[in-house]
Amino acid sequence: MREIYMDHSATTPVDEAVFEAMIPFYTSQYGNPSSVYSKGRAARRALEKAREQVAALINAHPREIFFTSGGTEADNQALVSYMMNNSHRGKHLIISSIEHHAVLDTCEYLQKIGFEVTRLPVTPSGLVEPDTLKQALKPGTILVSIMHANNEVGTIQPIKELASIAHEAGAAFHTDAVQTAGKIPVDVKDLGVDMLSASSHKLYGPKGVGCLYVKKGTKLGKLLYGGSQESNMRGGTENVPGIVGFGKAAELAQTRMSEQIAHLTGLGKKLQKGIVEKIPRTIMTGDPENRIPGHVSVCFEAVEGESVLLMLDSYGIMASGGSACTSEALEPSHVLLAMGIPAETAYGALRLTLGKDNCEEDIDYVLEVLPRIINSLRTSSPLR
Question: Does domain 16-252 have CATH number 3.40.640.10?
Fold first, then answer.
């Protein structure tokens, strides 16, 4: 049976060139980058090269890149550390209602320890409208955090405009760019953000490594204590093999980006068009144009999403019902509910996210199999 992977927003396979770059730092070049002898110095040089590669991907200075264990840690550090280190200026934080749980759950923690959090509504296509941000800002607002693109529905936010509005009110701006860094152009200077989170395993790098961009002059402190690594911003010996892999993946992503955007946009449009034409009572979710290339998200009426995923898997097709981080949750997606989609429809969510190795034949196969699956499930559904 053939296997078709269409869950690249959840994770991506490690690129062969990335894996090859990592191997020496597991074997011969295993030194601690804080050590002064030759193996340690070699590890330090590799770490700093990776910092330059990641910085180049988002047009940052290498000294503004701080490596973390992934996007979740980067989000936590951005929000918790910034709010705690700047609480003398105010205690109000603004986010969107469709943020990843790495931000939502962090904000719940911040509320428990005395901070105020406002969650902005979104349009039916998942956009944060600039006027809603303007209305939510107040004298005590010190930070705004809006994700660059949503992981479940793919909608890309107007970050440049939102950051400008925040700055006019004296607030700093953070964006979770885990779903966009390496997939579309991300330029921290053009966007005007003060902090940005990114993750290696979303762009064909290894899991367990990410970064937080912190603009020079932004007042931020440690989240993890125990050493002076990462310019005294994150205690703990650096994950050198993972960081080297992240650097190589960032370099490859920058080189291939234009070609991949064209490739994935074409495949995504073909898949989306085919689903709508072949399967009645299908609701497309997210912005129809302003979205991550190759990201297709739908809701099928009178169908339970988990059943769709299981049947697709029986045909060798791997997909998601939304966020991989909430795939075991029994509640409908908070993103879809925030967009005004009824709960009974949100239960029928399906996310198909394409990658560099997907091809036209994969799309054809999915469009052959998926309509049969939906028809079969609806035949036995009490909601039909």
Answer: yes
The pLDDT assigned to 88 comes to 96
**Residue 232: per-residue pLDDT:** 78
- Homologous superfamily in CATH for domain 4-12+257-379: Aspartate Aminotransferase, domain 1 (3.90.1150.10)
Q: Check residue 381 and give its pLDDT.
A: 64
Model confidence pTM above 0.90: yes
Intra-chain end-to-end CA distance of the chain, in Å: 31
The rounded distance, in Å, linking the Cα atoms of 233 and 188 is 20
Identified catalytic residue from 107, 211, 299, 325:
325
- Residue indicated by tokens 């961009």: 213
Contact 210, 232 (CB under 8 A): no
Q: Is 299 a catalytic residue?
A: no
What is the per-residue burial (b if ≥16 Cβ within 10 Å, else e) of 315-343? bebebbbbbeebeeeeebbbbbebbebee
Where in the chain are the domains?
4-12+257-379, 16-252
What pLDDT sits at residue 227? 85
Mark the ranges of the chain whose per-residue pLDDT is less than 70: 322-330, 381-384
